[in-house]
Amino acid sequence: MCGIVGYVGNRDVVEVLLKGLTNLEYRGYDSAGMALQDCGEVKIYKTLGKLINLKNELEAKKSELNHPTSGIGHIRWATHGSPSLINAHPHTCSCGRLVVVHNGIIENYKELREELIKKGCTFRSQTDTETIAHLVADEYAKAKDLEIAVRNSVKKLQGAYAICVMHKDVPDVIVGARKHAPMLVGIGENENFIASDTPAIIEYTKKTIYLDDNETAVVTKNSVKVTDKDGNIVEKKIEILPWEPMALSKLGYKHFMLKEIHEQPDVIRNVLNGKLYDIDSPINLSEVKLDKEILKKLNKIQIIACGTSLHAALAGKYIIEDFAGISVEVEASSEYIYRKTTTDASTLVIGVSQSGETADTITAIKQAKEKNAHVLIITNRPDSNMARLADSLIPVNAGIEVSVAATKSYTAQLISFYLLAINLAEIKGTLDKNYLKDIKHELIQLPTKIEEVLSNTSAIQECARKFSSYKNFIYIARGINLATALEGALKLKEISYINATGYAAGELKHGPIAMLDETMPVLSILVPGGITYEKVLSNSEEAKARNAKLIALTSSKDTNIDNLFDVVLRIPQVMEILSPAVTCVPLQLLAYYIAEFLGKDVDQPRNLAKSVTVE
Ligand code: F6R
Question: 614 CA to middle of ligand 1, Å?
Fold first, then answer.
């Protein structure tokens, strides 16, 4: 979604802003722009499409610029108004002296717009953001102070915003403010930064101040002042960012997605590190801040999440119910927030989110907190808004994920669920000691098994080539790999735009089977060792009888299945309950290679955003 970066200092401002925006572009966007303070003037540049267009525009107009000393940049993901040059940020007030960039949605923008038009303001775009520019300009005319003008203006805004404002008459000052949208200040030596997310500044500084809701920051080259909604100074803690700039490099891989898929063995080792030492020691999960006696009696868990994280949550349900015997409900955050739920003080509510900024999940978590539930957050961003709301926080330590399609953050979430479920099982004494040891042993082995999958991807590439021209796919599985079927299908949809749907294999005959013919390949996930294998095999036979082309993803060594399936993708043997951490990998790769064959923009699929900060 949208991204903001601002800079005041001695470096090449254009370069800093372009670099910052480039590091945010994985979030998804459709236009870009920047405003530069240059020798007493504010100059604005905007382009549609990718950042390279903005870069080329700035290069072409280089001679217009003397020596910019500060600026604000933005990438826009259209919400109000189509992706067009006029709707791209920055937006200005009627006279063009004041500029603003904005992330979020202003819900009362229509009312404000009408009032401002009556006052004589001339609107040019269809955006909600332009309202902010006129509003702050109106307040500035009264207060003659940009900080006060911003503070007074945001009091009138309803909705979510992270904004940066500059004014021609107030050189080299950026005023930022936020509510329900992230914003941080980067502290440098004789230079300062402001941004909507850490990757925008990581190449220049690791020292950061996170703004809280209703705070305003005034950023100059040598100072940062943060105030609350009443203008009182707030002493903010400087935090050191946990990321390395290296994380934003492809390290020789063609795409971030491929790099991130290959990082999964190490990601799992990272998640297990310090928590699972050996098969004889209990799991160390001090992150769960609930008293052991409460956990012993815990009998209701609700997990809320969206998209890929929702699939990890579904796997989490199977794992927790299997290991700890606690009843688990799983729900999409966007559904949870608009109904009467049974959440109460005795419920453990788990929020799962790669970004920690997903608006639906944040709202759901806030509702759960209002009902006095203990909220545990599983996220890859311990510096996120969601993490700040947590009563207990399990940071999944997958490292920054740049590709919009989630891969390594998904496996890290899965592993966090295994650790949590084992921890609960150990407290409740629900698992047989030998079974527990087997599970721990297998968990420790998972990275090696995934490495085996990653070391030879030729069969997956060949399968991708063979099937890349099909327009529809069905993925089927039973038991815990239903989550894998849903996630595998989602990955294919997201990056190749091919229609793929995951089903519980037993559901096939209750409707979807009507769609089957030679144009609809069926991918079956078959993991022997439990009760699902034979059943999925017979469901695959049913599909074969309707002329569907069949792909098997299996750890079975049985060569007879090679006669039933058109393609068999083999993975190492793995316990069924732990298998989603392995089965998801070939499906990520299959989606990746199909999208690659089709020449799609793998890392930044159309219409998608890395962190979805609107409901
Ligand atoms: C898919 C994907 C999305 C996200 C969803 C929730 O690859 O990344 O489906 O999983 O938007 O985002 P988070 O996990 O950040 O809450």
Answer: 13
Report the percent of the chain where pLDDT is more than 70.
98
Measured distance CA(330)–CA(218) in Å, rounded: 42
Mean confidence (pLDDT) of the chain: 94
Residue 612 has pLDDT above 80, yes or no: no
| 8 Å CB contact between 101 and 73 | yes
Please give the pLDDT value at position 190.
Answer: 96
User: Could you report how far apart the first and last alpha carbons of the chain are, in Å?
Assistant: 12
Mean pLDDT of 347-375: 96
Q: Write down the residue that tokens 């995951």 correspond to.
A: 502
What length is written for the chain? Answer: 615
- 458-597 shares the fold of 256-449: yes
Nearest to 587 by CA among 509, 525, 522: 525
Whether 2 is a known active-site residue: answer yes
Q: What is the pLDDT of residues 91-142, one digit of tens each?
A: 999 999 999 999 988 889 999 999 999 999 999 999 999 999 999 999 999 9
Under CATH, which number does the domain 3-247 receive?
Answer: 3.60.20.10
Give residue limits of the domains in the chain.
Answer: 3-247, 256-449, 458-597
The residue among 149, 48, 156 whose CA lies nearest residue 98 is: 149
Q: Is position 306 annotated as part of the catalytic site?
A: no
Q: What is the SS3 string spanning 117-170?
A: HHCCCCCCCCCCHHHHHHHHHHHHHHHCCHHHHHHHHHCCCCEEEEEEEEECCE
CATH of domain 458-597: 3.40.50.10490
Report how far residue 479's alpha carbon sits from residue 190's, in angstroms, rounded to the nearest whole number. Answer: 58
Write out the two tokens for 13. Answer: 């401002």
Fold category of 256-449 in CATH: Rossmann fold (3.40.50)
Q: What is the pLDDT of residue 246?
A: 63
Q: What is the mean pLDDT of residues 186-205?
A: 94
Distance 103 CA to ligand 1 centre (A): 18
Closest CA to 40 of 209, 183, 167, 195: 167
Please pick, among 2, 93, 121, 164, the residue that the annotation labels catalytic: 2
List all residues 6 or more positions away from 239 whose beta carbon is below 8 Å from its beta carbon.
207, 208, 209, 210, 383
